[in-house]
Amino acid sequence: xxxxxxxxxxxxxxxxxxxxxxxxxxxxxxxxxxxxxxxxxxxxxxxxxxxxxxxxxxxxxxxxxxxxxxxxxxxxxxxxxxxxxxxxxxxxxxxxxxxxxxxxxxxxxxxxxxxxxxxxxxxxxxxxxxxxxxxxxxxxxxxxxxxxxxxxxxxxxxxxxxxxxxxxxxxxxxxxxxxxxxxxxxxxxxxxxxxxxxxxxxxxxxxxxxxxxxxxxxxxxxxxxxxxxxxxxxxxxxxxxxxxxxxxxxxxxxxxxxxxxxxxxxxxxxxxxxxxxxxxxxxxxxxxxxxxxxxxxxxxxxxxxxxxxxxxxxxxxxxxxxxxxxxxxxxxxxxxxxxxxxxxxxxxxxxxxxxxxxxxxxxxxxxxxxxxxxxxxxxxxxxxxxxxxxxxxxxxxxxxxxxxxxxxxxxxxxxxxxxxxxxxxxxxxxxxxxxxxxxxxxxxxxxxxxxxxxxxxxxxxxxxxxxxxxxxxxxxxxxxxxxxxxxxxxxxxxxxxxxxxxxxxxxxxxxxxxxxxxxxxxxxxxxxxxxxxxxxxxxxxxxxxxxxxxxxxxxxxxxxxxxxxxxxxxxxxxxxxxxxxxxxxxxxxxxxxxxxxxxxxxxxxxxxxxxxxxxxxxxxxxxxxxxxxxxxxxxxxxxxxxxxxxxxxxxxxxxxxx
Length: 658
Prior knowledge:
Layout: H1 10-17, H2 22-49, E1 54-70, E2 73-88, E3 94-96, E4 102-104, H3 116-144, E5 146-148, H4 161-164, E6 172-176, E7 179-180, H5 184-193, E8 200-206, E9 209-215, E10 218-220, E11 225-227, E12 234-240, E13 258-262, E14 265-266, H6 270-279, E15 285-292, E16 310-317, E17 320-323, E18 334-336, E19 356-359, H7 364-367, E20 375-379, E21 382-383, H8 387-396, E22 401-408, E23 411-418, H9 423-426, E24 435-440, E25 445-449, E26 455-459, H10 463-472, E27 477-484, E28 487-494, E29 507-510, E30 514-517, E31 520-522, H11 527-553, H12 566-577, H13 581-599, H14 607-620, H15 626-657
Antiparallel strand pairs: 1-2, 3-4, 5-31, 6-7, 6-8, 8-9, 10-11, 12-30, 13-14, 13-15, 15-16, 17-29, 18-19, 20-21, 20-22, 22-23, 24-27, 25-26, 27-28
Helix pairs in contact: 1-12, 2-3, 2-12, 2-13, 3-11, 3-13, 3-14, 5-11, 11-13, 12-13, 12-15
């Protein structure tokens, strides 16, 4: 049925993926073919049960290699083993009478002559079969042994449901509402499926002690689902170093380095490392790492027992500066020159280069006379060599007027810079996420215009919300609640009109390294337990695919660059398949879930479109005209073809780029 539209896709991928790892590729292709075959088998079995005349059940596409006929059904084995199709009498074969009108062949065993209920069953059988098949594949994968993300908390955002309930990084979630938790996907599924106003009762292992925790997830309108604001655990092994600069290369972090100490003290959590580097606000932080030893060809060196040989190396890291707003990142109106030419760094600030790319009009820097292309050299006669030093100096002079020295047009200039006072400076708030404002005058949010000029609600944990809240309370004494290192604080401050701009919050410090995710091997030996876990995993991915589809088609929160066509699936799948049979089976189960949901969208040419037409027929008491059905089918086929071409081009470009 619907999988017939996949037949022309096969040829486009063969030439792209065959070089290298041919065996892995062939396993993946056969697996994909079997997923589609199972879908068509569902249509076939239910159609036989409903006594529909089936003319052909084909495995593969193209020219028939061999086959046989049994009970008037031709079973074909075709040259291209990518899926299959079922051809039923009366579903797609129309004839034309002498008047030129289209009509369906009049046969009691024709699909079109069966009751609407039976046709609905036939149409939806492929989707149901894919869901069942996915559960079985998940079960097999877990019985073989799957590497999964453990149910251990990586980070917890301040002033969120998880934080208020007392959850902290490193906590192990054991149960939710009495159900045992095996991995982080179970946690996310329980949160996503939670009914509104439902309190989740957890048991967690915290600092070696088991404790009970109750919390209520909050709906995130942007993500479109309920959240408690925790992240997956991450290992201490570096997957991506980011851009650092500074020390020689052998004194910098490298991929596969395992961080074991911070400033000489052992560490057990990557969050501790990231926060410490950010808190140093650009100052050097010493890390001790275990580095794999490699030979001259870049291959790992193994000892006599086959274990990777490592050596301890001391490296130096410092945070990178991020300035807001993203559309015009600036410090009091001075937009730094960006490292546009450095592909590995992206559009990042070169902290060692105090050149101003642009000065925003009517800003403090503009009023001080600073011009585009100027280089700042000193503040109050004391030289500053980088953005770290400049920002630190300006923060210490909040509310004062300083003498700014800068070079431009080959000459040295001076100007008076009025540094805004900023009420936030009175809080002595460290950089986010160690320092977070919770409420201002009892308000956790404030209305302010967004980048599009439309008013929207902003959290007072972000600079837009702080600015809006302070402007509303200018000239009044307000109480500000805030967190420093997770500890609550309160302070009563008089808000002056010149102190409403939280300009210091528009400067943040972040570590750019990315660690590998923390993984564990999950093996379920009991078939019944593994099957139940497979059913749960199928349900979880069904929900995720529904949310993703809604965000892609209706809210546009997911762009087309996140979509993949056949080429992208082959590229990703080949990489996954090379990790082992369990990973390949798991990936095929995931694709089976996706295939089921996509096929059941109310879209012409796929099963969901057929089901929608049958629903209309049930309501009206008669089917849509054959002409209307053919027109919509043709339109749907054209749209699928255009989407296929677009996604194939996008996939090939991404493959080439990677």
